[in-house]
Amino acid sequence: MTNKILDGRVALITGASRGIGRALAKCFAEQGAHLILTARTQGALEELDDELRADGFDAPTLVPCDLTDFDIIDKVGGAIYERFQKLDVLVGNAGLLGTLAPISHIDPKEWQKVLDINLTANWRLIRSMDPLLKASDAGRAIFVTSSVGHQARPFWGTYAVSKAALEMTAGIYAEECAKTNVRVNLINPGGTRTDMRAEAMPGEDPETVKTPEAIDHLFLELASPACQANGTLVEAEAELKAGHTAYAL
């Protein structure tokens, strides 16, 4: 008998080498998941691997890759099928900020790059992982968004557009999964102590914003087989302000 929420479950986390993805990797490992971790930086993934092993957790499966090489996503899906025949949890966390500038000034190549990682890579993940999530007894997909995805803000053009489109993509997928065993939700972390936050807010004292570990329980609840929320956008700041330590169970 175990009280670990993700005991024996297979979880894929993108952007896992730092920030929110790294915190989730540790949280999910503590809860018994076998981890499949992607990031662009192999060295950072290996450091995380060392930490997880040192803490007594099973060795994760590391996939150093750039998710904008979309064919890699299909190969990862094939490898997951060959090894596990299912995927229990998908966390689409990898993201790119891009330059904060007037929307008319954004370089076309940068526009495409941000959309590729924030939007298209997540769609390709849905496309490749959908059969694996449906092979699980309780497939769970969680995508990371931002308040700028549902509230226009000047100078955040590419990032905001990519997140707005991601929210619609996840919402459509949730509706299509409503009568299946898959549940699809979004989380807006709000101000969180990450490298992306530091890039976007260079004058901000990082000690004034919460750590990624402060919100890992919200992801954990949405990853749980017991969670029945679907098509929901979880606002982490509101959940923490309300003192919620669990969600939708």
Key words describing this protein structure:
alpha/beta, 13% strand, 8 helices, Rossmann fold
* CATH topology type: Rossmann fold
Overall 3D form: globular
Radius of gyration: 17 Å
> Can you identify the CATH class?
Alpha Beta
Portion of residues in beta strands equals 5-15%
How would you describe this protein?
It is a single chain. With 249 residues, the chain is an alpha/beta fold. The chain is 43% helix and 13% strand. A seven-stranded parallel beta sheet has the order 3-2-1-4-5-6-7, with helices on both faces. The mean pLDDT is 94.
How do the strands and helices of this protein lay out in sequence?
Blueprint: E1 10-13, H1 19-30, E2 34-39, H2 42-54, E3 61-64, H3 70-84, E4 89-92, H4 108-135, E5 140-144, H5 157-176, E6 183-188, H6 195-200, H7 216-223, E7 233-235, H8 236-241
Parallel strand pairs: 1-2, 1-4, 2-3, 4-5, 5-6, 6-7
Helix pairs in contact: 1-7, 3-4, 4-5
Question: Nutshell version of this structure?
Answer:
By secondary structure, the protein is α/β, with parallel strands linked by helices. It contains eight helices and seven strands; from the N terminus they run E-H-E-H-E-H-E-H-E-H-E-H-H-E-H.
